[in-house]
Amino acid sequence: MNKILSSVAKTSAPEAPSPTIAIPTKSKAKSGALGHLIYVLRENPVTALAFIMFGVMVIAAVFGPYIVPYDPLATDSDSVLQPPSFSHWFGTDNLGRDVFSRVVVATRLDLVISVAAVALSFMIGSFLGAIAGYRGGWTDITLNRVLDTIMAFPLFVLAMGVVAALGNSIANIIYATAIINIPFYARLVRAEVNIRRNAGFTLAAKLSGNSDARILAFHIFPNALPPMMVQVSLNLGWAILNAAGLSFIGLGVRPPTPEWGIMVAEGANFIVSGEWWLALFPGLSLMVAVLTFNLMGDGLRDIVDPRRRT
Amino acid sequence: MLSIKGLRVAFRTRHGEVNAVNGIDFDVAKGERLGIVGESGSGKSVTSYALMRILDAGGRIKAGDAIYSGIDLRNASERDMRDIRGREISMIFQNPRAALNPIRKVGHQIEDVLRRHSRATRHNAKTKAIEALEAVKIRDAATRYEAYPFELSGGMCQRIVIALALACDPKLIIADEPTTGLDITTQKAVMDLVDDLVRARGMSSILITHDLGLASQYCDRIVVMKDGLIVEAGDPVELFTNPQHAYTRKLVHATPRRIGTIRSLLPEGERSDLEPHIISEKPLIDVINLSKTYQGKSGPVHAVKKISFTIHEGESVGLVGESGCGKSTTSSMLVRLLDSTSGSIFYRGEDIATLPAADFAKHPLRPKIQMVFQDATDSLNPRFTARQAIADPLYRLMGMRGDDVIERTKELAEMTGFPAHLLDRFPHQLSGGQKARVGIARALASEPDFLILDEPTAALDVSIQALVLNLLADLRSRLGISYLFVSHDLNVVRLLCDHVIVMQNGSIVESGPVATVMENPKHPYTCELLSAAPQAPERDIA
Amino acid sequence: MAARGTSVLTRIAQAIPVLFGVIVISFVLTRALPGDPAVQFAGIMATPETIEETRVKLGLDKPMPEQFVIYLGQLFQGDLGQSVSTGRPVVTELASRLPASLELTLSALILSCVVAVPLGVLAATRPGSWIDQICRLLVTMGVSLPTFFTGVMLIYIFYYLLGISPSPLGRLDFVYLDPPHVTGFFLIDAAVDGDWETWFGALKQLVLPAVTLALFTLAPIARMTRAAMLSALSSDYIRTARAAGLGSGRILYGYAFRNALLPVVTTLGMVFSFVLGANVLVEKVFAWPGIGSYAVEALIVSDYAAVQGFVLSMAFLFVFLNLLIDLAYSLIDPRFGTSGK
Predict the structure, then answer these.
(1) The whole model's pTM is what?
(2) What is the interface pTM, i.e. ipTM, of the complex?
(3) In this complex, do C159 and A272 lie within 8 Å of one another by their Cβ atoms?
């Protein structure tokens, strides 16, 4: 017995130097996950690049207004429609505003809209989905009917209708984007919870004396989180596209607020006369942002489940 | 007819090349039935895929020769191989339902093969396909011809797969775990069918299986594989009575059979004396007229029909039956995960069947009735370490906190033989046997006196099964708990249980002391179950 | 076989509650207008009298359930209200503009399927090859491209720089006359009329917007085809087929591809949703006179009846398309309607 114990102590020593056991468990799990993350990022430079680009975007969103060379709203009638130059990297628009400054400053608004919308739909969707998936029966059927009805609309069109009905404001763009995203989360969580509802470990947790709420919150939901994170990442890209699309057709954001979608819309009027920079740079930023989220999503999918690579 | 020399197979993976088969030699003579036996990961299936040259992407034959009737299988062109597959060498797969194209009529799938090998023309293909179905004793073949795989039972699907494989009269048939996932009586029917056809047509066969008993019953010669190598080859009786290699000995011992004790599953030298367990006269569980009826789409489904039985304190009762017989429903009701439709379950005289299953988690009797689940992987939360899994009932049911939990977890791990230094690992970092031990430790954490064991060894290799069964026997002697051991395998039930209940279609068809039922079965279904179990050649029990 | 027929009928019946739900949501959206709906419906130029008139005309002075019944009744008569900006019934406006939208959407879908499905199959059968890499690149770029931005850039390149495409204004250059109305699809109508010059003119106008939309839908279809093909090729029944010596063509197309089609067809539902949404943006970019650009114009002038009519008719169209998808699915999959589906 003593021999066994001492050998146990020896082998576990390098892993868990602290004598209290409960706490190192957690920190070790975390460092393990972190180590895995670093390993995966090293294996997938594309994913690493996506994370770096995401970092750049966050910096632009937070510090954008303080680091840009020009006031994004300041017009200058002396330099109207200037092509990109050293003093105006992305050129100037029809009112002489610096396109580069406007593109950078717009990051914050676009990110805020998409993050807020996705956060809302994540919370509402996963709450509804988790309850429906776990309880089954009428709750499940009712939720499914409601989701079916939402999904029966082409989603962008529904968003148009919602904004038209609620009123043309940025907050309503967020609500509309959230509403059309809820079904994705609710369905995903419902499916993830449903397959685990009768899994061995759920039954075992019941036998161990856990209440239903506890089982759902601490046993089932954490297992459904990884696929959710993938969905969140992919969804952020889609939410940005959606919000930009709405402002492109004149909903939500109003000029002269710098926002990528509306900037492309404004630039589109000048494209037929050859002033390409007005539309190109905001459009490219939009594309890079969506690409970043999509690549992050794909990368996360690889981290979560290497078998589902596509 | 088939000669394999120095065969090596390797797979490219993310972590470099992994060898699955490390140089094996064997021959198959004309008309010979060869068995390849090994536990999971031994390279037995990969060998057969390599012969057919249908290895998954990344796999390749690294070295060695495979000569079939003078044809070099390793270097034959893909076009030649296509002619050989199905016409010369055929294969039967495990998981028959997945092995058939789900959206094509089974008859058409057979026609595809017949026409590929010019055994039929467009005009007579249907007749020939129906003949092929009749050859595998499918009744009403003309109707079955029109069926899709999802409309057929697992056993029926396996017959179709066999018909497909035999349609073009191959000379060699390779059966890769053909009965995994099938019920024991279906298993016997399928094996008998294949065996009859092989003999009648004078074919050679290779049976790949993890079950030494099955192989010895249906093969003329057996090779035993471990870690990509052949450790021993020979005649089945010889192999069973006088195994030479240590691994073969271990495997032979671990294979459950009609005689011997639970300790004889273990290698000699590791067999300590088993402490006897004491059975009291007092009933612990009294089940009276227990029923469960589900509302199905086409009327009510009676899963369990008015069953009654008693489990005494300290007694172990085996509940035996095939899938769909109601044994899982019964155990779910006993452990209070499922509400019964009618009837009573008395625990020490208190009727617990009347308490709703949904509220039982908070009932004072919850700690006393526990369960070990069938699939250890599925029953452990992937995000909980072994320690957290074992500690969960301690927190929730025993009200323990802090150091007490740490102490008790360690104690439980030690009791179930789970290495304490692995306690902080997650399930995917543990082996099958270790996961099974965590499952047992968790069930024991709340100090139950009634434990339901739901096929706890079904997913394990036989050598691990031997260890787990012995652990369960030791725990019973030490803790004095009662077991309800749910299983499809009478040979395993016999080893652990005092009393056995046989269920069929929701009813108990026979029950009695294990020895009586095994030696003198009364009900025809019990006889069928007993005769369907693979019979290993008898040997001296050392 | 009879079971399948029943399940097809069941599927059609299932569309009815969905349509009802769509009408309810549409009704709620109409009444959820901030402020007084009567004010909104009466338009910007309304006086208090006209507002009151509108209120009575729309039945807005009645209780909600009664309003809903009236709304339903109007819908059944094909009445979606009057457009404030043009003064014509919304239904007439939508009906006259629908063919333009459909022509654009369908050409884009056909174009993207014709490219994406073979691309996905090729990529799946040659994993790691250059075609696989191209497929991955297209898929990743494709889903990240904002349609309206692609459209604008294509105009810049092909109209401004290269000058090979006509000016991006509508379905037909003003030098041509609209072909006589048969189906409303210019390509078909012109062909029926035998007026190949107009046909060619319409095609030239159609190419850029159709390509823009197709680029957007290419990605999800190619991605799903590739994934479905990969998973079909690694399934057990393919191994059985290989072990039986079936030829590679038979295995690839007869076995793997038909099975892979199932998830691809399912994905088409989502693709339709995207394409109908993106349609609005593309129509705006190319000044395409479809229902999308009609809705955008209506939005700008706060012509709510027109917007709601547009949303409702798009939803009906989408429900109908989904029905078609499921019916196509039932043709491929014998299991249709037997289990969870």
Answers:
(1) 0.82
(2) 0.84
(3) yes
